[in-house]
Here is the input.
Amino acid sequence: MKNNRNTKSRIVDAAWKLFYENGYENTTIEQIIFESSTSRGSFYHYFSGKDALLGSMAYLFDEKYESLQKELDPEADALETLFYLNRALFSFIEQRVDIDLLTRLYATQLTQIGEKQFLDRSRVYYRLLRAIVTRGQERGEIKKDRSVSEIVRLYAMCERGMLYEWCLYRGEYSLAEYAAKNMPLLLSGLRTEPQKTP
Here is the structure.
């Protein structure tokens, strides 16, 4: 099972590397197979074609989250941890994801019937966010007037909104810098007010 996941991951990683370097239209399935050191049979076992790889972007982000998860300090403030993850992911997107592909993915998520990878609650992304928010509420860092699910949905909505806006502006500003300034502002209402001493 692990070997299957590694093969699929190699295909996804190779595809997105080539999409970024050559553009989506100029990348062929043969190049992806060569870059990933896999076979035509392996490629078609996981993907029906090049277009099917667009939906894998959400899982590419999850791989980034899995690597970031190992770096997190479990004692760090929950909201600061969320802001750190956001900046790290957005930096990764700026460096590794072609904006035309991100725009195309948003279009398919809005129009396709069936699976919408960005809303798949079983993804690493949502599991990690739920764990951080739960810990933050248990330690009194995040208000409890909203459920964990509501807060995770709000956070994800803020991220998607920033990504969508960045696509609309064709990446004319730094996504990571914009998020670093504005994500804390957008989510500041979640923070528990410090206890006043009498």
